[in-house]
Amino acid sequence: MSIPATKVTPPLVDELDIVIPTIRNLDFLEQWRAFFQPYHLIIVQDGDPTKTIHVPEGFDYELYNRNDINRILGPKASCISFKDSACRCFGFLVSKKKYIFTIDDDCFVAKDPSGQEINALAQHINNLLTPSTPFFFNTLYDPYREGADFVRGYPFSLREGVTTAISHGLWLNIPDYDAPTQLVKPLERNSRYVDAVMTIPKGTLFPMCGMNLGFHRELIGPAMYFGLMGDGQPIGRYDDMWAGWCAKVICDHLGLGVKTGLPYIWHSKASNPFVNLKKEYKGIYWQEDIIPFFQSAVLSKEATTPQKCYVELSKLVKEKLGPIDPYFEKLASEMVTWIDCWDELNSATSKIDVVPKKTEAAPKKK
Amino acid sequence: MSIPATKVTPPLVDELDIVIPTIRNLDFLEQWRAFFQPYHLIIVQDGDPTKTIHVPEGFDYELYNRNDINRILGPKASCISFKDSACRCFGFLVSKKKYIFTIDDDCFVAKDPSGQEINALAQHINNLLTPSTPFFFNTLYDPYREGADFVRGYPFSLREGVTTAISHGLWLNIPDYDAPTQLVKPLERNSRYVDAVMTIPKGTLFPMCGMNLGFHRELIGPAMYFGLMGDGQPIGRYDDMWAGWCAKVICDHLGLGVKTGLPYIWHSKASNPFVNLKKEYKGIYWQEDIIPFFQSAVLSKEATTPQKCYVELSKLVKEKLGPIDPYFEKLASEMVTWIDCWDELNSATSKIDVVPKKTEAAPKKK
User: What Gene Ontology terms describe where this protein resides (cellular component) (chains A, B) (predicted)?
Assistant: First the structure.
């Protein structure tokens, strides 16, 4: 008798959606086929909704364009940005899965120093399924990794760690620089492969990039709102930063962990620094007030869910950042709208129909 | 006419002392000769003062044994531990230099992944001479390194960084594990070369290992007291941890930076886990109270120098940790003695003669 073949099931295949915001054909998926094909994709089409986005054969996906977003959310669609990658958070909203991995369509498979192709998704899953250690720094980095552990002097009571909510991956080739740095260092490429994953300590903020990002949707999804950017807004390219600042404050409050480091993806194309400067300049100015605001933001004991935390944070934004510019009052208001949407689409008794329909104006289900 | 040869002077050669605690002949220096020989060594001989320690030819050094320590400090010598590597801090006290590099005598030259020998001292100097960024996390690690910078979303007002006070290096081969972990993983070796230097964020404590450590003596030296360990004490192997906790709290208070990561040294020999367990067990128990104590320690606005900070901290230790065990009252008292010694030996009008004498009982100057 022959031994039956064991089917290797990719991890979390039924519990994770891959969210991709795009304005173009998704040919980049060809390179990711071996790693992504077993998973479900949620594609958020930005820009002109009449344009057809080509998705390579064999991928299981649903696709939403602006018309779909307007139809599904109605007047509340105002909280979803247009003509900016911030629209990706619509994918977080309509997912029904426990985990999200989101990636930009100019990100390709990177290689580790041994020349092996990096399965970025598998590394994010590993990061998310192992604990974080936000209360004390481990000098040998991730203590749960093979060949590593907690070093001498690390309190034993803290060695169980906490649940990881966010896994922030990095980029080889084009680094994620702001417009001024792009202008000053147009030729700089990131070629340093740092073989580490680490927890960002409690109380420390970080610049979260949305290009290569995994998170626990049930635990922190409601805080992953990418704000008001792009069309009709005075600012762009701060969508992921905003989500990162909010999410980190809420993770710290709820005792959840945030990791950064591996996996790397290959970021292929630098965006135009002159265009970026126009999008960023108010953000560059405002962030000097935004950072101290988030560093000192304190949530109440009553804020026990990410939704409650986020609504509390929106009130603080209105109160403390509103005086800087009316933009922040509008943002605070849409933060609340976002949570309304989240609760409606994610409640057990949700009455909103988000099942992609096979009509022309509706999202395409493959 | 020929071009005159340019003499390359090693960095900080007149501003840095290398401090080595030892009980044996310093043959390990042979491997470090190319990197250490231009620098002055301060050797602190632990254990039997009648034993002669052999130092390889050609090194410039001064050596202190227990008799020297007793002669120089008199009754205040009680603050310097005996039969424990904690005695190394005597070297910090008698140095007149701006920077210290301290290394254990079982640490050898490591190689980077390309096979090149790592000049650990040069990397520490580089870490110390470039700023730290304790107020916000940079996801591409040290932004001052070649090929790296601050990423998008990093506030511009924080990009100048702060002065670096401590550079904490790591270890290939034998990792710095506590006795329980040594017992559980006797064969674990660290073979992962993580090509990164990073700032430990403000407000985050870390386990500082004294094996491979550089620091700015003028700025943080008074906090680098390695406590009461070894002979006559209920605890060992927490000397560097104690110094690290105190120093980090004081760096955070004074706005100084602490870096960890590169350089690696090759740690050759694991110490006996059974002996270590005996030394550590009270520390393992006590640190569960010590860590929360340091995490919540607040220094006053009047504490504007490391000395003032340290004396304030000693009072907090007495008040908050004293009730745990009389050991902490004794330690708090010796922390004050240490600062007395520091001020006496480091004042412009110091009356204590620490110049090593060429008599038999006195330290040897080569």
Answer: cytosol; Golgi apparatus; plant-type cell wall
A190:B148 CB<8 A: yes
The tally of CA atoms less than 13 A away on the side-chain side of residue B51 is 13
Length of chain A measured in residues: 366
Q: In terms of CA atoms, which chain B residue is nearest residue A261? A: B139
Please judge whether B244 and A287 are an interchain contact, meaning their C-beta atoms are less than 8 angstroms apart: no
Question: Could B147 and A191 be called an inter-chain contact, meaning their C-beta atoms sit closer than 8 Å?
Answer: yes
Contact B275, B231 (CB under 8 A): no
> Is residue A351 situated within a structural domain?
no
Most A-contacting residue of B112, B152, B166 (CB-CB within 10 A), to test interface: B152
Q: The pTM is what?
A: 0.93
User: Smallest CA–CA separation between A226 and chain B, in Å?
Assistant: 14
pLDDT tens per residue, range A341-360: 999 999 865 555 555 533 33
Residue A366 placed within a domain: no
User: Which of chain B's residues have a Cβ under 8 Å away from the Cβ of A190?
Assistant: 140, 147-148
Residues of A in contact with B155 (CB under 8 A): 287-288, 291
Q: What is the pLDDT of residue B354?
A: 55
Backbone angles phi, psi at A168, to 5 degrees: -105, 115
Neighbours of B15 (CB within 10 A): 14
Of B177, B231, B230, B234, nearest to B207 by C-alpha is B177
Q: Which single residue is written with the structure tokens 């550079």?
A: B167
Is A190 within 8 Å of B136 when comparing Cβ atoms? no
* Interface pTM, i.e. ipTM: 0.92
In angstroms, how far apart are the furthest CA atoms of chain A? 76
CA triple A320-A322-A324, angle to 5 deg: 95
The verdict on residue A353 lying in a domain is: no
In whole angstroms, give the CA distance from residue B219 to residue A324. 38
What CA–CA distance (Å, rounded) separates A93 from A337?
A: 12
The answer to whether the CB atoms of B238 and A153 lie below 8 A apart is: yes
Alpha-carbon distance of B119 to B169, in angstroms, equals 12
Which of chain B's residues have a Cβ under 8 Å away from the Cβ of A207?
A: 136-139, 151-154
How does pLDDT run across B344-357, given as a tens digit for each residue?
999 865 555 555 53
CATH of the domain at B32: 3.90.550
Q: How far is A136 from chain B (nearest CA, A)?
A: 6
Write out the residue range of the structural domain in which residue B317 sits: 16-346
**What is d(CA A204, CA A294) in angstroms, rounded to the nearest whole number?**
10
CA distances from A89 to A19, A52, A68, A95, A315 (A): 8, 21, 14, 10, 21
Residues B177, A151: C-beta atoms closer than 8 Å:
yes
Domain count, chain A: 1
